Amino acid sequence: MPDKNQTPQAQCELAEDINTTDSPAPAETQSAEPAQDSMPSIQESLRIAELKASEHHDAWLRAKAETENVRRRAQEDIAKASRFAAEQFATAMLPVKDSIEAALAVDNQSYEKLREGVELTLKQLTAAFEQARLREENPVDQRFDPHRHQAISAIEAECEPNTVINVLQKGYLLHERVIRPALVVVSRARGA
User: Fold this and answer.
1) What is the pLDDT of residues 75-95, one digit of tens each?
2) Which CATH architecture has domain 134-192?
3) How far apart are CA 125 and CA 176, in angstroms?
4) Interaxial angle between packed helices 111-131 and 87-105, expressed in degrees from 0 to 180 and rounded to the nearest 10
């Protein structure tokens, strides 16, 4: 509080001192304002977040559509493969059929000509089997394998027991998978 005995000039100086200590310095107000301007507003932050969310959603939708397209194409390829799986083999069998029909169409054939034609047809058939990876199983003198062979009988023999000694019908494997087991006769020990 100003003193009543003080001169008016002294009272003015005292007021100036009080005003300068209470008010902030001009440098402080200038540095505080730019800091508030550099921070984005809540609305601006929300707008940026919504744009990013929209971009991510669009990218997700595209990826999902691409995945569905790949899955659909794979299913179509599987369906086509199963439908036309035998096409290559059927194409290889057509010349065999043509040879048999040509042999039957000829009248008055000699035995030698007929045999020669059948041998050529067998070669065509064997080539078609090889092309389809259909392999013949002829296990004579091999150990009996119940996964590939079917034993019809067992007879006493000089060889080791469970050895194939006779093949009654050849077996066939397709890519190591048994299509038809070989019908075989196996050996057993003497006196067993």
Assistant:
1) 999 988 878 878 888 888 999
2) Roll (2.30)
3) 19
4) 180
